[in-house]
Predict the structure.
Amino acid sequence: MKQFQGQTLSWDLKDGIIELALHREPLNEISSLTLGELEQFVAALDGLGGEAHALILHSTLKSGFCAGADLRELYQWIREYGQVEVATHAREYLERIHSVMNALDSSPLTTIAAVHGVTFGGGFELALTCDLLVADKMARFCFPELRLGLIPGYGGIPRLKRDLGNAVVRDLLLTGRSFNATKAQQIGLVSQVVGEGEALRAARATATQMAKFDRTTAAAAKRFIKPIPHEELRREIDIFCELISRPAVEAGLKKFVESTDAQPYLP
């Protein structure tokens, strides 16, 4: 399927470049519905990959790339399943989303995240599956999960550790503070910083340049320099599921859900 228009995302294949666009208001929170549509994309990716050399992930929303997991849905799970059973439900959900993230991470295509504005939590983790991050100057990156009594659960810690090392992971994870695009480029997270609103254009130009290279060679190089940290990813799921049953998590989510702030996900 070369084109798809869903409720939370869409994709299109043109001139050897697949563009996956997030468009769920208010800020592309990753819900069960989003996950289902991402699974549809991954299922279609093998067929699309035969005609493509690059994949670009981006957001059509002015507010940013993605605020992360749908915390209202997560709070609903705790209320519905209770603090004991929610861990089992969370594990099933995380295993599904890890399968999607790993498929994107290991795709033989060269993948580019074109990000702007808020790139937090699960949205940051989605961007980290890509080979290259192109950010406009207003992009900000953050793992705010500790405020909720949790750790990132979509594979962000092992992937960031793989790409940048433990010092950066500890800073983002334990302080909960955000990095701007300039800082992100300085530490090696972002490959290119561009003007406001220019990330997608720059990503397209980069993807077009990549068409000049042999695809088999590019895929082999990617496998060599970007191994999937499977063992640490499994451990991340275990830790997340151990934490989610704690009363502190329900209290943190309740505070978020009941917040009257326009953007309660901001640190």
Remarks:
- The longest strand covers residues 9-14.
- The chain has a mean pLDDT of 94.
- The CA atoms of residues 53 and 214 lie 9 Å apart.
- The two ends are 39 Å apart (CA to CA).
